Amino acid sequence: MQSFATVQSGNLISIGYFLAEGDMTRIVAAAASVLAFALGACVCSLFVLWSSRRRAKYSTSVLTFEIGMLGGLIAVFLLVPGLDPWWLAWAISFLAGVQGNAFHREAGMLYGNIAVTFVVQMTGSLLGRAIGHRIASDGQPHLRPAGEYALVLLAFAAAGGVGFWLDSLLSVGTLTAASLLLLGLLLPSIRTHGPVDPEQNTPTP
User: Fold this and answer.
1) What span, in angstroms and rounded, lies between the C-alpha atoms of 68 and 98?
2) Tens digit of pLDDT for each residue in 150-202?
3) Which residues lie closer than 8 Å to 60 by C-beta, 6 or more apart?
4) Which pTM was predicted?
């Protein structure tokens, strides 16, 4: 249907394209993905605020929720073979909204799951500042952060390739891999004493 579960900028462009074609079915599908993503971000924001009020860490709870939801999606996908795949895509959009709101920062190092365009921009911008430091310098390091952003992009592309490969082997390969990855993040967050939630300019401990 030519829309995305997580790349909402692509969905918005697609909506305009489908609108020009007069294809209401695709408009609704893409718009539903955008709304599901926004709903996930909204729900997670409320939970983060509630956790902050209680002075409790939220990372462990969010990761647990994500693992549980992915497990539920795998079960539904396997047990209901005739299920419309759009419901799965919208559920992934919701999860992406939750993930982005919990672990994405507006300042500092941006994760690539919802900010790829900005990561590309920062890679080029910081590289330019590193090259042109003799023209004008703000005294800040630029080459290493540029490399870090570039690694995020490479990891994003590699994960996409691995995801396609896993799905060619197993229908729920990507969902299973995502669940295991989140489990790998959950375990240290449970064992860690003290803050584990990311802050605007501080990486997750």
Assistant:
1) 13
2) 888 888 888 888 988 988 888 888 889 989 989 998 888 888 776 677 764 45
3) 186, 189, 190, 196
4) 0.79
Q: Phi and psi at residue 192, in whole multiples of 5°? A: -75, 130
What are the start-end ranges of the E strands in the chain? Answer: none
The Cα–Cα gap between 172 and 80 comes to 13
Token readout for 118 is: 């900005």
Q: Collapsing DSSP states into helix, strand and coil, what is residue 202?
A: strand
Distances (CA, A) of 150 to 6, 53, 105, 133, 178: 20, 36, 17, 19, 22
Separation between Cα atoms, residue 160 and residue 7, nearest integer Å: 13
Take residue 99 and report the two structure tokens written for it: 């993930």
* Residue 8 and residue 33 in contact, taking contact as beta carbons nearer than 8 Å: yes
Residue 65 structure tokens: 């929720």
